[in-house]
Design goal:
The protein has 56 residues and is mostly helical. The chain is built from one helix and no strands. It has a domain of 29 residues. Keywords: Signal.
Length: 56
């Protein structure tokens, strides 16, 4: 096994471990509580993104 393949395998295993640990700790996203993707004219305030930092 080459060094490159070993490092790539360890990186992918670490990423998978962190993803699974996060899902186990939080229970995963609730798709029914997500804000609308496009809320033009709905009165819903933007939040959680860089566009929410606009001056008022």
């Amino acid at each position: 096994m080459t060094t490159r393949a070993l490092i790539a395998g360890l990186a992918l295993a670490g990423l998978a471990t962190m993803t699974l640990a996060d899902l186990a700790a939080t229970g995963g996203p609730d798709i029914y509580r997500q804000p609308p993707l496009i809320a033009l004219g709905s009165g819903a305030a933007a939040g959680g993104a860089h566009c929410a930092a606009l001056p008022q």
